[in-house]
Amino acid sequence: MLHTINKSPFEKNSLESCLRLAKPGHDILLIEDAVYAATSGTIVSELVEAAVKDKNVYALGPDLASRGIDEARLLKGIGIVNYEGFVDLAVKNDKVQSWL
Amino acid sequence: MSEPTVKRFMYINRRAPYGTVYSVEGLEVALIGAAFEQDVCMAFIDDGVYQLKKDQDTSATGIKNFSPAYRALGDYDVTRLYVERESLQARGLTEDDLMALTYEDEDDDWAEKPSIRLVSREELSGLVDQQDVILHF
Lengths: 100, 137
Description:
The complex is a heterodimer.
Chain A: E1 2-5, H1 14-21, E2 27-30, H2 45-54, E3 56-60, H3 61-66, E4 79-81, H4 83-92, E5 96-99
Parallel strand pairs in A: 1-2, 1-5, 2-3, 3-4
Chain B: E1 8-13, H1 22-35, E2 39-44, E3 81-84, H2 85-90, E4 102-105, E5 111-114, E6 116-119, H3 121-129, E7 133-136
Parallel strand pairs in B: 1-2, 1-7, 2-3, 3-6
Antiparallel strand pairs in B: 4-5
């Protein structure tokens, strides 16, 4: 299962709801304003760090760059994918959920 | 003819750039207000602080990077950009993560001065209370 999230974790609870329902081993891709969740030192960092332990969490590189987020500022264990990687994740998983 | 009325305008920006159009629209409206010679300032709270993040590079997305436009604010006499410190802290950011925005102070021999002013939640609350018109984006 692939989950995509596109909302800021500081404005909407999409990230929280997704992480609550996602199963271990699932792929979670942060896109658009959700990429802020991948950064260290925030009030949701602990939540994301816990998710990384049993799920595959990725952030979309072009959306990180747009927002001025350097890779060095990401939490440990977060993978970065480009648009091709996004397609690969969608193809690899039999189901995709978009958390709006 | 009476003198034109100058009102104190504050534009409160609460949203991140790119994900929605609020922030780019807010910037445009602030520039328009300043062109009408009103007393304009801006506040950046919650995700709005992300608008001022430096090193934004949208080249891989095809979206226009509008962050350089904040540099024009000083030329339109929008010289006070209040950033709430608590909002930065909640996002793991410091003042060093923000663009170095400046204006030239006409009352001080055009000395270049920083436009971004970090304020506490309490200070910002006082500033909001002093305004005539408050618009949210």
